[in-house]
Amino acid sequence: SNRLPHCPIHRRRWCPAGLYPIASTIGQSDLRNIIICGDGGRDLSYLANSGTVIKFTGTGSGSIMNLRENRAVVIEHIQFVYTSSSFTGTCFDCATVINSGNGSMFNWVQFYSPAGLLTASRVWYLRNCVDITFDQCYVAHCVNGWVGLDDSDGSQYETNVIRMINCTSIQLAGHAVVNPYTGWSMFACNFELGAGGIPSGITNTASK
């Protein structure tokens, strides 16, 4: 099923170590004041067989987790993986309408494909997000990591007070960070060469 286990602590969902297969989007719009916590968010062997692993087997251009209009959401110590080359979507769709501040955090979250696929378009989509922190996040095997705005997003949108601390990207087909408009801070981040040895760092698209 697409349900996360319940933890008796108020507003907390605890996912013990194990494999959690899902075939469609989880989460919901307007999610607020909740902590989703796993038991291990890092596997540098990319095998998806240790710690807490959310395994997405779906296809298409949608999202693995719907976090639109999120406020004070914390996701930590979880691996998110995808298995189909027909998945071309987003892992975390965090886009919001009103840029009044999110106050959300991703801590020790890893995204990758155990098969080394490069079809997922992006890990985070942050249109109009304000005040989101990424700490010790690790992304691989997709096109782009953190996307502030799409090239087609209008001038009324922004991203601001986005903090990245000790984050890593590796083996991307595109860039680690795309359109970080208007205010982002990055501390001790490591953007390694992309797939095939291409440069993979921070970029702005044509209209941004």
What would you call the shape?
Answer: globular
Main beta sheet strand tally, sense and closure: 12 strands, parallel
Put simply, the count of helices is 0
Q: Roughly what fraction of the amino acids lie in strands?
A: 35-45%
Which percent range fits the helix content? under 10%
**Could you give the distance between the termini?**
40 Å
Beta-strand segment tally? 19
Structural class comes to mainly beta
Order of helices and strands: EEEEEEEEEEEEEEEEEEE
Task: Estimate the mean pLDDT confidence.
Answer: 93
Poorly predicted regions: none
Would you write up a description of this structure?
This protein is mainly β and 208 residues long. Helix content is 0%, strand content 43%. It has no helices and 19 strands. Strands 1, 2, 4, 5, 7, 9, 11, 12, 14, 15, 17 and 18 form a 12-stranded parallel β-sheet that branches. It has a 7-stranded parallel β-sheet with strand order 3-6-8-10-13-16-19, with no helix packed on it. It is globular. It starts with 11 loop residues before the first strand and ends in a 5-residue tail after the last strand. The mean pLDDT is 93.
